[in-house]
Amino acid sequence: MGSSKTAQALMTKFNYEEKGKRVLLVKPATDNRDDTIDEEGRVHTIVRSRIGLKQEAVALAPGDSIGALYRSMNAKEPVDVIICDECQFLTAEQVNEMKDLADESDVPVLCFGLRADFMTQLFPGSKRLFEIADSITEIKSVCRCGRKATVNARFDENGEIITEGDQVLIGGNDRYEGMCYRCYRNLIRRRDNGR
Ligand SMILES: [Zn+2]
């Protein structure tokens, strides 16, 4: 989606590091397009923004414990803040664990992600975050018509809007575009009338 959330996540990381703070950057393992593998076979998960910023992150598979990761990292050198990109792909359990960490270990946890998928349904991670986050900030982006984009529309390789399919599709030729709900609905009507 054409939002700047990854850039915002990386800028937030930079702001903390500029103040001498140690950041634990994590990312759900669902999206591994930007991973690289070194000579020893270790996978490096990269958080990459469209404006060119990139940083290495720790990948979180669906069964991974953010609490265990935090405790092992913190034992080596204290962690001051946890930043998660693509947090919509977290499981509800991982979000619960992050909330417990924030409360019990007194470490700030900042999650950046999408609210809803291309069918306008909440992602599981986002749903749980909306339920228990202490505060939520909207990162605004603009629709092609100039209104605020609220929908993450998916298009196929022919540019036709898609309204059914798997919630998470990675590595295909589909592309995403942030749109206002009105433009999104108009495109669906136009597509359906053309059939
Ligand atoms: Zn619009």
Question: Could you explain the architecture of this structure?
Answer:
- The protein has 195 residues and is α/β, with parallel strands linked by helices.
- The chain folds into 2 domains: 1-139, 3-Layer(aba) Sandwich (Rossmann fold); 140-195, 2-Layer Sandwich (Wheat Germ Agglutinin (Isolectin 2), domain 1), CATH 3.30.60.
- It is built from 5 helices and 9 strands; from the N terminus they run αββββαβαβαβββα.
- The strands form 2 sheets. Strands 2-3-4-1-5-6 form a 6-stranded mixed beta sheet, with helices on both faces. A 3-stranded antiparallel beta sheet has the order 8-7-9, with helices on one face.
- Helix 3 (92-104) packs parallel to helix 4 (124-132).
- It is globular.
- The protein starts with a helix and ends with a helix.
- Residues 143-145, 147, 179-180, 182-183 line the site of zinc ion.
Question: How is the secondary structure organized here?
Answer:
Elements: H1 5-18, E1 23-28, E2 36-37, E3 43-48, E4 54-60, H2 66-76, E5 81-85, H3 92-104, E6 109-112, H4 124-132, E7 151-155, E8 161-162, E9 175-179, H5 181-193
Parallel strand pairs: 1-4, 1-5, 5-6
Antiparallel strand pairs: 2-3, 3-4, 7-8, 7-9
Helix pairs in contact: 3-4
Brief rundown of the structure:
Helix content is 31%, strand content 22%.
Question: Which geometry do the CA atoms define?
Answer: globular
Largest sheet: 6 strands, mixed
Q: In percent, how helical is the residue content?
A: 25-40%
Major β-sheet strand ordering: 2-3-4-1-5-6
Which hetero compounds are present in the coordinates? zinc ion
Low-pLDDT runs of 5+ residues are none
Derived structural class: alpha/beta
Count of separate structural domains? 2
